[in-house]
């Protein structure tokens, strides 16, 4: 029976982080400056705190200076806007990230729009999305998880041009940008969403499957074409009394079955997940390079 190559996203991310650390070191010795990333966390959600801590730690390891604001849940929209604007005008900060979700009384769109387009290392600013979608234009930063997916394909020698790709999900942060990226690279892309009537039939035609629909183990082994490349973005907690925390993480793909049919597959955890932070560091470094080159002109 076929056994897919299991893509080690953790190892790949580590390699990229080391490449970034070397570039940061070079910037420091040549220009006496390092990239800076500001992370803004509102409230005390446990998952958000973990994400923010991981991002800060990754910055430190790469030599990127991290600035952070941990703000109370009841901060007003005006006060939060002021925090973002201060980072916009701080020239040691090259990237600004506001951890989502924000509390209900705050208009998240308004806050994200306030982040200067040059410092939008998440790639969520409407200007960056627009440039991603327009032919012949390029964004300053591409959303981290979608970019991480493409990087995994490239680093594993997967041909994208001319292939049939199916993306499960059409969210602003994963599905939509990843489908645009695949199209740019000359794949023929089908986007499957919650109102798509025949997802299995569509999936069976795909050479490349990107699963980002947040539905635990929805994509089963017999949905896949033999030899398909499967990237599983889904991160779903399912109850598991035998696990220490009482739950375990599974993807949107039923791994045990899919690994018998696919040519390559990412596990959950340890697949796409670690790539997201690596791409955040990459976007921050690029933003710093752009800003310092601008200074030199
Ligand atoms: P959203 O909930 O924003 O979007 C989910 C998308 O999946 C929607 O477009 C929805 O369709 C579609 N969908 C829902 N149910 C089905 C279904 N039964 N069949 C087909 N499509 C369906 O999620 P995100 O995009 O934010 O995240 C997707 C998954 O990826 C989650 O599990 C999340 O945890 C994970 N994730 C992982 C990251 C990482 O590894 N670093 C980063 C970000 C997310 P519709 O538009 O019709 O509602």
From TrEMBL:
InterPro entries assigned: Aminoacid_DH-like_N_sf, NAD(P)-bd_dom_sf, THF_DH/CycHdrlase, THF_DH/CycHdrlase_cat_dom, THF_DH/CycHdrlase_CS, THF_DH/CycHdrlase_NAD-bd_dom
BP term (GO), one: tetrahydrofolate interconversion
Domain of life: Eukaryota
Catalysed reactions listed for this entry: (6R)-5,10-methenyltetrahydrofolate + H2O = (6R)-10-formyltetrahydrofolate + H(+); (6R)-5,10-methylene-5,6,7,8-tetrahydrofolate + NADP(+) = (6R)-5,10-methenyltetrahydrofolate + NADPH
Sequence intervals crossing the membrane: none
Domain called Tetrahydrofolate dehydrogenase/cyclohydrolase catalytic: residue spans: 7-122
Pathways per UniProt: One-carbon metabolism; tetrahydrofolate interconversion
Pfam families, per database record: THF_DHG_CYH (PF00763), THF_DHG_CYH_C (PF02882)
Swiss-Prot/TrEMBL keywords: Hydrolase, Multifunctional enzyme, NADP, One-carbon metabolism, Oxidoreductase
GO CC terms of this entry: cytosol
GO molecular function list: methenyltetrahydrofolate cyclohydrolase activity; methylenetetrahydrofolate dehydrogenase (NADP+) activity
Domain Tetrahydrofolate dehydrogenase/cyclohydrolase NAD(P)-binding: 143-291
Free-text function comment from the UniProt entry: Catalyzes the oxidation of 5,10-methylenetetrahydrofolate to 5,10-methenyltetrahydrofolate and then the hydrolysis of 5,10-methenyltetrahydrofolate to 10-formyltetrahydrofolate.
HAMAP family registered for this protein in UniProt: THF_DHG_CYH
Subunit structure: Homodimer.
Protein family: Belongs to the tetrahydrofolate dehydrogenase/cyclohydrolase family.
Name assigned to this protein: Methenyltetrahydrofolate cyclohydrolase
Protein source organism: Ostreobium quekettii
């Amino acid at each position: 029976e076929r056994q897919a190559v299991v893509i080690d996203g953790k190892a790949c991310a580590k390699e990229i982080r080391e490449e970034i650390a070397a570039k940061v070191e070079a910037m420091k010795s040549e220009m006496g400056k390092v990239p800076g990333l500001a992370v803004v966390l509102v409230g005390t959600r446990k998952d958000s705190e973990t994400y923010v801590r991981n991002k800060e730690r990754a910055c430190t390891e790469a030599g990127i200076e991290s600035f952070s604001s941990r703000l109370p849940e009841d901060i007003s929209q005006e006060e939060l806007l002021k925090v973002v604007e201060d980072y916009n005008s701080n020239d040691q900060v090259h990237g600004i990230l506001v951890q989502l979700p924000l509390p209900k009384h705050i208009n998240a769109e308004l806050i994200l729009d306030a982040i200067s387009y040059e410092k939008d290392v998440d790639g969520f600013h409407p200007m960056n999305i627009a440039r991603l979608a327009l032919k012949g234009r390029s964004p300053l930063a591409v959303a981290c998880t979608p970019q991480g997916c493409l990087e995994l394909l490239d680093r594993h020698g997967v041909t994208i041009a001319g292939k049939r790709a199916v993306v499960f999900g059409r969210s602003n942060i994963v599905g939509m940008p990843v489908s645009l990226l695949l199209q740019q690279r000359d794949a023929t892309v089908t986007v499957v969403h919650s109102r798509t009537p025949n997802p299995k039939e569509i999936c069976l035609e795909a050479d490349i499957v990107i699963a980002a629909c947040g539905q635990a183990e929805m994509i089963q082994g017999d949905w896949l074409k033999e030899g398909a490349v499967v990237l599983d973005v889904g991160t779903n907690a399912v109850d598991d009394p035998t696990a220490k925390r009482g739950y375990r993480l599974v993807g949107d793909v039923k791994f045990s079955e899919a690994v018998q049919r696919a040519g390559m597959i990412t596990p959950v955890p340890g697949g796409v997940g670690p790539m997201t932070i690596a791409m955040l560091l990459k976007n921050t470094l690029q933003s710093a390079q752009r800003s310092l080159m601008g200074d030199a002109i």
